[in-house]
Amino acid sequence: MLVISGEEIRTLYPMKDAIEATKRAFRLFSEGKTHVPLRTNLPVKENNGQVLFMPAFVGDEKPAVGIKIVSVFVDNPAKGLPAVPSTVLLVDAENGFVKALMNGTVLTQIRTGAASGAATDLLARHDSKVGALFGAGGQAEFQLEAMITARTLEEVRVFDPRIESCRAFIDRIKDREPFSRVRLVAAETSDEAVRGADIITAATTARRPVFSADSVKPGAHINGVGSYTPEMQELDPRLLNLAGKIYMDSIDAVLAESADLINPLKEKTFSRDSITGELGELAAGTKPGRASSEEITLFKTVGIAVQDVVAAEEIFRRAEIHKAGKTISF
Ligand SMILES: NC(=O)c1ccc[n+]([C@@H]2O[C@H](COP(=O)([O-])OP(=O)(O)OC[C@H]3O[C@@H](n4cnc5c(N)ncnc54)[C@H](O)[C@@H]3O)[C@@H](O)[C@H]2O)c1
């Protein structure tokens, strides 16, 4: 069994390749070639935590099977530990043995960035120059990397109400490739970030919309990454009526989990019929892309286990080629 660290994943799995692999993951999902059981959630009340098990089977030329284990232990930070540790187990689809164990936190960061990257690549205007990123937390670096990998941007404005963490985030990455290629600005207000932006990504823990639909320019592309519970809403519901194309990673998962869609549907300000489809259908060419340079496009993702298994299989394949990771035997 191969053990692969987060640092190794970062080297083995560049964002550009992750974006292409993610398009394939979404395509296989929308073609019905995957099996994704409901995730199992085991609360550990004694320690104020929960452990989530997210398995998936991906039927491709070479089938893949795996499971991501994500824990949420809110008291961890006080003990100097991350609150959301994560690990991925990859199973050999030929014989059922576990063939790899890898850092699930880094894998998730890359695959989540790559989901927005895939949508941006498929939907954003090719002449996009300005980006806006909402949220300067754990996902931010990867969302930013995906945005500037998908399009050649000149400037990205980052907004986070915790302005000090926003500035610290920019300082930490600004001199590093590929971030040094763009001008990074810590926006003072959400409006300052979003006005004139061609690509807007929200990856926040917000419970209320993080920018106003009135400030979104015609032709903009929007990625909604953060909201994954009926209490978390980061997209202005009016965006759903402004957008000419609305894509999701999984329509069923988004409608079950995210207040970004649950609330407008409940309040009847938006109809399910207005959802264009799943990003996998766009990737497969069975659903249409951007119709004009003025059209607003929107992608909402809550994340599906198929992304994890496709990413894990890619990382494992590359680790074997480059002789990376540490082999252990039971
Ligand atoms: N779609 C997916 O597949 C997927 C995968 C992983 C994580 N997520 C979700 O993405 C979100 C971000 O993840 P993270 O790890 O970066 O979380 P994090 O807690 O590290 O950071 C969240 C950031 O959002 C900021 N924020 C809160 N309200 C805001 C607002 N109104 N405007 C701008 N910023 C605001 C916070 O200050 C914080 O810096 C979380 O909700 C997470 O669960 C989604």
Concise account of the structure shown:
By secondary structure, the chain is an alpha/beta fold. 34% of the residues lie in helices and 23% in strands.
The level 1 CATH classification of the largest domain is Alpha Beta
Oligomer: single chain
Mean pLDDT: 97
Q: How many structurally independent domains?
A: 2
- The CATH homologous superfamily of the largest domain is named NAD(P)-binding Rossmann-like Domain
For the record, give the distance between the C-alpha atoms at the N and C termini, rounded to a whole number: 8 Å
What hetero molecules are in the model? nicotinamide-adenine-dinucleotide
Q: Extract low-pLDDT stretches.
A: none
What does this entry look like structurally?
- The structure is a single chain.
- The chain has helices at residues 6-12, 15-30, 104-123, 140-150, 163-173, 190-194, 238-242, 251-257, 259-266, 279-284, 305-321; strands at 2-4, 34-35, 40-44, 49-58, 64-73, 86-91, 98-103, 130-134, 155-159, 183-186, 199-202, 221-224, 245-248, 277-278, 297-300, 326-327.
- It has 330 residues and is of the alpha/beta class.
- The protein has two domains: 2-107 and 306-327, ornithine cyclodeaminase, domain 1 (2-Layer Sandwich), CATH 3.30.1780.10; 123-304, Rossmann fold (3-Layer(aba) Sandwich), CATH 3.40.50.720.
- Strands 1, 2, 3, 4, 5, 6, 7 and 16 form an eight-stranded mixed sheet that branches. Strands 10-9-8-11-12-15-13-14 form an eight-stranded parallel sheet.
- The protein is globular and about 60 Å long.
- Nicotinamide-adenine-dinucleotide binds at residues 108, 112, 134-140, 159-162, 165, 203-206, 210, 225-226, 228, 301-303.
